[in-house]
Amino acid sequence: MNGITLQQLKCFDAVATEGSFQAAADRLLRTHPTVVAAVRNLEVQLGFPLLDRSGYRVVLTERGRAFHARAQNLLRQADGLGTFGKQLAMGEETALRVVIGDLCPLEPTLQCLRNFSTDNPATRLDLYFEAISGPWERLADDEADLIFHHIDKSDPLFDYIDLSSVDLVPVIAAVVFPALLPEQITPTHLQDLVQCIIRDTARHSPPKDYYVLRGARYLTVSDQLMKKQVILNAMGWGHMPRFLVEEEIRQGLLIDFTNVDFKGGRVDLVAARRRDRPHGPAADRLWRYIAAHIGRWTP
């Protein structure tokens, strides 16, 4: 590494990734000659060519590919070191922004947050309640320190802690179809009824919907508790988290009509935060506290 700089490695990585010096310069917000000079100096210092410039697009030489893989590892370590330095520089947070998603069981979640607040009185918790894509958008926009929701676990943006699984079941008031068994209810029976769905609270992301019966009428509500009351009052039908309607199903007020046409589903509830952002001492304490009390979310 004698004489090799991180800036040279960043320029080389950008050229290797983008396929041209100009695209690399645009990505790094630097001039074309600056990037060219950085890569040429790196090659001189190494004593061999990293790039084949004979074609329309520059490509890595065989030794360039091997060097690029090691360079990317070093750049990732440097980024991680910078993030760690920012974290060390952060003082104790005065507030944490926590988003609770619409499928999250409130009682165990709020109990966890209450206990954390009791032990950390200097840190205020700002709670937000969001639905569908809203929690993801808050986290992506850096408007949340942590969310309780379901996520795409393959997305490298997130660190997450598995909490529990939430079953979603289709339900309808028992008075609507008193003569039908749950397995007899079909999409045809529901086509002329109103489906109750949750409004997506995302502000600029494409709206999403789940389990919507195409062509049917629908009404929207802001949260699961309002949705439950709408369905109990025979104003509509819809999919609900099982933990919210178990007692009403047991009492015969609601019918769970999971069948071959309406299979319901399951989502994994997690606590999630950004992987690429520094987290202060209080945020890390909350993260560790959640990890130590996973069992409280078990149905």
Overview of this structure, please?
With 299 residues, the protein is α/β, with parallel strands linked by helices. It has 3 domains: 6-89, Arc Repressor Mutant, subunit A, CATH 1.10.10; 95-164 and 268-297, 3-Layer(aba) Sandwich (D-Maltodextrin-Binding Protein, domain 2); 166-265, 3-Layer(aba) Sandwich (D-Maltodextrin-Binding Protein, domain 2), CATH 3.40.190.290. It is 40% helix and 22% strand. The chain has 10 helices and 11 strands. It has helices at residues 6-18, 21-28, 32-46, 62-89, 106-119, 134-140, 187-190, 224-232, 242-250, 281-292, and strands at residues 51-52, 59-60, 95-101, 124-130, 146-149, 158-173, 194-198, 217-221, 238-241, 254-256, 265-274. Strands 3, 4, 5, 6, 9, 10 and 11 form a 7-stranded mixed β-sheet that branches. It has a two-stranded antiparallel sheet with strand order 1-2. A two-stranded parallel sheet has the order 7-8. Helix 2 packs across helix 3 (32-46). The radius of gyration is 26 Å and the shape is elongated. The chain starts with 5 loop residues before the first helix and ends in a 7-residue tail after the last helix. 31% of the residues are buried. The model has no long low-confidence stretch (mean pLDDT 90).
Question: Architecture of the largest domain, according to CATH?
Answer: 3-Layer(aba) Sandwich
What best-fitting shape do the alpha-carbon axes yield? Answer: elongated
SSE pattern, N- to C-terminal: HHHEEHEHEHEEHEEHEHEEH
Backbone structural class: alpha/beta
Largest sheet: 7 strands, mixed
What number of domains?
A: 3
Tell how many strands the DSSP assignment holds. 11
Beta-strand content: 15-25%
Poorly predicted sequence stretches spanning 5 or more consecutive residues? none
Mean pLDDT: 90
Q: CATH class of the largest domain, anyone?
A: Alpha Beta
- Helix content range: 25-40%
By CATH, the superfamily of the largest domain comes out as Periplasmic binding protein-like II
- C-alpha-based Rg, rounded: 26 Å
Q: Distance between the terminal alpha carbons, to the nearest Å?
A: 54 Å
Number of helices: 10
